[in-house]
Amino acid sequence: MAQVWKFFSHEDDYSDMSEEGACARLGRALSIKTVDGPTRDTTDWSTFDELEAHLRASFPLTFGRAAVEHVDHSLMLTISGEDPSLLPALFIAHMDVVPVVEGTEDDWEHDAFSGHVDDTYVWGRGALDMTDQLMGELEATEYALAHDWRFRRTLMLCFGQDEEMAQSGARAMGRLLEERGLRFEYLVDEGDYNIVDTGIYGAPGRFGMRVNLCEKGYADVRLTVRSAGGHSSNPFGGTSLATLSEAIARISRREWPVELIDINRRMLECLAPTITAEPLASLVRGGRAAIDANADAIAREFASRRELYPFVTTTCAPTMIEGGSQQANVMPQDMSATINFRLLPGVTTADVLRAVSEDVAGLPVEVELLNDAANDPSATSRSDGYGFRKLVDVASRYFVDPQTDEPLALIPAIVSGATDASMYERVCDTCMRFSAFVADADEVARGVHGTDERITRRAYLQGIRFFIRLIQETML
Ligand SMILES: [Zn+2]
């Protein structure tokens, strides 16, 4: 049962906003099938034109006022502010959505592209990831313009076309902004949609929202072993499977450094006053100085827990193996395996390739970095400046702990997944992946790319209020 609104406050702000209208516009957007790929050539780009037409019709003041540019199939809007001494702000989103897993179409209570709106929910693929935020950013901008608010700060809105695939749209826009010599005061992108129980960080009974300020890197490494196969009665020199297994075992045994990187120290600094579970409580008592002094012990503690260990080390997950024999008495021929790495900031894809090559030295194994998906870790954004402070101020107004009436903790954090935000890190030192459009825990558990993706109307409206307020607090 939906209940995420127990964390909401000030739902009466901007009461002249039309809930009916906003939900209908979101529903219509969700009915447009802007599905990615699987490749650029197989993407139906006409759906993106259809979505743009819907945006233009829905937000006439915004599109009337903004300079609108197309970068490939991505969209860039600039609403110029009156004070050129203020660095512009950037709201980003992606217009693409992931496909529905084949064979599960009928499992949806309402068709994935129906854009169905009922009394409680707006349904459809993209309702959480992230057509809601795309539309919400525009709803807020339109609201500001409808009320004749004068923008002192320039606002840019950049909407990527392929975040779920190649991120080429955001990459091109980021480069373009860099070429223009622009710098941004802050950027807001999608976060992880949920309110987290901070029990996992040793602060049970409390809740918070993550503001993701950096991303782990990503690398797939393929190992190949060549063999002519043959009858298994003479495996002289070992089979390709034996060699590949040895290689995988060596690579898996490598201990990557365990380290409490800066972002985790900031996270703990934020939570320290509420951390009561030992041994963490003792290690963080005294705030940042204690956290720095006990960093190694804290990192080891994180590393011993399933939900925290990915945040203190580079992870290595052998995931695919191909080419095994179909018969017990026949040796396999060529075999390959793929190993997926998630890189802690400080480790590069080149480091991973070097480490793997070292590990398999002496074995007849070919090593290859699959470049299409390879990404070094992102830069780490700051949390000590204007943008972060303002985001916390505004979020604190709208998201509170119902037990204590205190604002939810806004937790600086690192994420594993790649988002478009990292494509702007050269033009902005405050890239905040934060979603004010929150889902209930059961929605999150089903996965945002799962069946029956939907958002509650109240959560959608609350997200819009967050953006209106952010405009009010930082643009005017
Ligand atoms: Zn997304």
From TrEMBL:
Highest taxon of source: Bacteria
An example of a GO molecular function for this protein is: carboxypeptidase activity
What parts of the sequence cross the membrane?
none
Q: Which UniProt keywords apply?
A: Carboxypeptidase, Hydrolase, Metal-binding, Protease, Zinc
Q: Domain Peptidase M20 dimerisation spans what residues?
A: 215-360
Pfam families in the record, alphabetically?
M20_dimer (PF07687), Peptidase_M20 (PF01546)
Q: Into which family does the record put it?
A: Belongs to the peptidase M20A family.
Name of this chain's protein: Carboxypeptidase PM20D1
| Source organism per UniProt | Parafannyhessea umbonata
What is this organism's lineage? Bacteria, Bacillati, Actinomycetota, Coriobacteriia, Coriobacteriales
